[in-house]
Design goal:
This protein is mostly helical. Helix content is 73%, strand content 0%. The chain has helices spanning 14-75, 91-107, 113-157, 163-177, 182-207, 211-222, 231-269, 275-283, 289-301, 311-319, 326-330, 337-358, 364-376, 383-387, 393-407, 414-431, 444-450, 456-469, 479-493. The model is unreliable at 385-390 and 480-486 (pLDDT under 50).
Length: 497
């Protein structure tokens, strides 16, 4: 039998030997080919794994950095927008939308399906945790906002006669929603109703217009039946009653004094000539008996004054206008009628100028000072302060310093010093200067009397005095200090006892 491709040698068995060799060689070739294929496949697997690891690591770490930064930026944004609306309401949805946008964009960058699947699984777990955190932030801010709203409501209801019912309803609503526990609600209700009772009592005292109304309030306090009106509030109310009574007496005195000055001016000018008109002022309690007697005397004697002024008296009043009032000028028997009228006009102008300087708050200078302080000490404080329209602690402290320092200045220096004082407050804050715990005397002499020579305490006190009153001591103020120091030295040396 002839086998194609096999030489016929004529030797028995040669064909079989050649076929076995061929088969063996073929099998060997297949083994080599299979081995090479396995090597190639193993390399491809390793290469794919390396690519997957590289893509996963690069994209996952990059996403963590981006998303963590976006999360921190979002939770640190203002709690209220430009219209003063709370931003917690959509913060979770904004985070979800922003984070998913980033994840979808990142998924499009993958070329390795294994890396893509691993990234998607892990980033989903990360986002699930961050979303829970964001919902916690939103819930916390929701509770804070509700607490602020409740505080605002209670403050408003405290001024209403039937506010206790509204306060109770508002707190019960907060408890039912879950913004506070029942125990917190009970404690808040007790404190709020006590505040309402105290506020209503204070308002009734301040609204009293005569002694009869004040006496009625006193009697009601002696027989108090309001369970929310504490003993401390009752004690404070009695003090407020006395203060209100004193204020009413002062207001009446000021009113009667004004009527007296007006009537005396008319007598001097010749516009009031009938005693009956003066008597009517007394009968209607517009003037006191003392004022009535003074007016009758002026009317009867036609208090026109001398023909020639006492020039020393006129000059004294002219130079020290702020030390006199209308009644003192009008009743001055050392001045002529015309001079008294002229000085009265000058006093009115002086008072107008003083009032204008005292009212420095509404000036352009004060507006500029406020602008400077607001730029250095921002108005926005905590979210609660912002919601209630309150300024930050730093801004409030700076404004208080400005008001106190300007108020301490003499009339005529207030408006011109406002901007300088504001800049001084800013400079102190920048330098970290603290003066709030130091009690500064009113005069240099008090500092000299209370401190020793060149002691640090005296220097500190003198610096604080200049800062508080925005003024420098006169050279003469230090003469007494030198004298005191020499006396102290003499005592130490035994020269004097």
């Amino acid at each position: 039998m002839r086998i194609p491709g096999i030489n016929q040698t004529g030797v028995p068995g040669a064909e079989q030997i050649s076929l076995g060799a061929i088969s063996s060689a073929a099998q060997s070739q297949m083994r080599v080919s299979s081995a090479l294929t396995k090597v190639v496949d193993d390399y491809q697997v390793m290469s794919n794994k390396a690519e997957a690891v590289a893509q996963y690591g690069q994209n996952y770490q990059s996403s963590l950095t981006v998303l963590d930064s976006a999360y921190d930026e979002m939770i640190n944004q203002p709690h209220f927008d430009e219209k003063n609306n709370p931003t917690y309401r959509d913060i979770s949805s904004r985070w979800s939308k922003s984070s998913m946008k980033h994840v979808n964009e990142t998924l499009n960058n993958f070329t390795n399906s294994t890396a893509r699947s691993e990234y998607q699984a892990d980033i989903t777990a990360y986002l699930r945790g961050k979303s829970n955190d964001m919902r916690g932030v939103a819930r916390t801010r929701q509770v804070e906002f509700a607490s602020g709203v409740l505080a605002s409501q209670i403050s408003s209801y405290a001024k209403q006669p039937n506010g206790s019912e509204k306060i109770q309803a508002a707190i019960e609503q907060q408890v039912s929603i879950g913004f506070m526990t029942p125990e917190e609600g009970v404690n808040r209700l007790q404190a709020s109703l006590e505040d309402h009772a105290s506020t209503q009592l204070t308002m009734s005292i301040q609204g009293a217009e005569n002694d009869l109304e004040l006496d009625a309030i006193r009697l009601s306090l002696l027989d108090n039946t309001n369970p929310y009106l504490s003993l401390a509030s009752v004690k404070s109310a009695f003090t407020s009653l006395d203060q209100r009574e004193s204020q009413m007496d002062k207001d009446l005195d000021d009113q009667q004094n004004g009527v007296y000055v007006d009537a005396l001016t008319k007598v001097i000018m010749g516009d009031l000539t009938e005693a009956g008109d003066i008597d009517m002022l007394l009968v209607s309690d517009q003037i006191t008996p003392k004022f009535h007697a003074s007016l009758m005397k002026s009317l009867n004697t036609e208090m026109l004054g001398p023909e020639v002024d006492d020039w020393a008296e006129f000059s004294l009043i002219k130079r020290n206008m702020g030390d006199y009032n209308e009644a003192e000028i009008l009743s001055n028997s050392m001045l002529t009628k015309d001079s008294r009228i002229k000085l009265l006009t000058d006093l009115s102008k002086w008072n107008d100028e003083e009032d204008k300087d005292l009212d420095w708050v509404g000036t352009q200078q004060s507006d500029e000072a406020y602008r400077l302080l607001k730029a250095r000490f921002p108005l926005k404080g905590t979210p609660m302060q912002a919601m209630l329209g309150l300024s930050s602690v730093e801004n409030s402290a700076a404004m208080t310093k400005l008001y106190n320092r300007i108020s301490a200045l003499p009339p005529g220096d207030k408006i011109s010093s406002v901007i300088d004082v504001a800049n001084q407050i800013i400079a102190e804050a920048d330098a970290g200067i603290q003066t709030k715990t130091l009690v500064v005397p009113a005069t240099i002499q008090e500092i000299i009397d209370q401190t020793d020579g060149a002691s640090p305490e005296r220097k500190k006190m003198l610096d604080a005095w200049q800062m508080k009153y925005n003024a420098k001591p006169a050279p003469a103020d230090y003469i007494r200090a030198v004298q005191n120091d020499m006396m102290s030295l003499a005592k130490e040396m035994g020269v004097i006892v």
